[in-house]
Design a protein that fits this description.
It is a single chain. The protein has 214 residues and is α/β, with parallel strands linked by helices. It has a single domain, classed as Vaccinia Virus protein VP39 (Rossmann fold), CATH 3.40.50. 40% of the residues lie in helices and 24% in strands. The protein has helices at 4-34, 42-48, 70-77, 90-99, 136-146, 161-169, 183-192, and strands at residues 58-62, 82-87, 105-109, 121-127, 147-157, 195-203, 206-213. It has a seven-stranded mixed β-sheet, with helices on both faces. Strand 6 (195-203) and strand 7 form a beta hairpin. Helix 1 (4-34) packs across helix 4. The longest helix is centred in the first third of the chain and has 31 residues, at 4-34. Bound molecules: S-adenosylmethionine. S-adenosylmethionine is lined by residues 17, 20, 24, 35-36, 63-65, 68, 86-89, 92, 111-113, 127-129, 132-133.
Length: 214
């Protein structure tokens, strides 16, 4: 039997997703012009090295935005690889689609926590996404299902946790609540989802997590 409290939780979750979709739709063009460029793009080329990408892999670019990582991922996974680029914002996806296409790129407008993928993904990349996921436990449980047994999950920000959280604190509600949890909370969230953090570093201008199925 469906419980009334579950229906309320689902409705609240749907509202959270809708608010972020509207926010990022409104931001899309500005995002592409101001945040997609990565100081001459060399920064993205360096970041891509962290993901240990290989020809033939299946990669999920979660919250791909206007697609700043897409050309670098495609270059690494080659013709035999597949890239699934997911975003809730149709405006962000439209910008990404305009730039990159091909038989091995799949654009999907969806909440990345609610994809029906089972043991399909070699590399799951959350670049500047994680704080925006309203239910982090649900997201990580899904990510654990999407990953192949030897797959890897990455949470990456070219900024410190403090910089990310301070920046979001000045955004309108509900985005002002979008935070990167501290290390202890992350460890618990990952463990509860069946994931092991194998690399975790926070630097002055960088935040990096690599995880695998436990
Ligand atoms: C801060 S932007 C980062 C975009 C891109 N990864 C980059 O670094 O340029 C966050 C992106 O995640 C998307 N997003 C937010 N919540 C999402 C969700 N639940 N599922 C899929 N995409 C989501 C937003 O629409 C937005 O495009």
């Amino acid at each position: 039997m469906i419980k009334f409290s579950d229906v309320l939780v689902e409705q609240a979750y749907a509202q959270e997703i809708k608010a972020r979709r509207e926010f990022f739709n409104a931001l899309a063009l500005r995002w592409e012009n101001e945040f997609d460029q990565g100081e001459g793009k060399s920064v993205w080329a360096e970041i891509i090295d962290l993901f240990d990408l290989k020809p033939g892999q299946v990669v999920l670019d979660a919250g791909c935005g206007s697609g700043c990582l897409i050309p670098y991922i495609l270059e690494r996974i080659g013709e035999e690889g597949k890239l699934i680029a997911v975003d809730i914002s149709e405006k962000m996806l439209a910008l990404a689609r305009k730039k990159w296409s091909g038989p091995h790129v799949f654009f999907i407008q969806a909440d990345v926590s609610q994809l029906g993928l089972i043991r399909l993904i070699d590399r799951l990349i959350c670049f500047r996404l994680f704080p925006h996921l309203p239910d982090k436990r649900k997201a990580l449980l899904s990510f654990c299902q999407y990953l192949k047994r030897e797959g890897q999950l990455f949470i990456v920000h070219p900024a410190s946790r403090k910089q990310v959280n301070d920046f979001h604190a000045n955004l309108p509600t509900p985005l002002c609540r979008d935070k990167l949890p501290d290390k202890n909370e992350m460890m618990v969230l990952f463990r509860m989802a069946g994931l092991n953090i194998i690399d975790f570093w926070e630097r002055e201008n960088f935040y990096f997590i690599r995880a695998k199925i436990a």
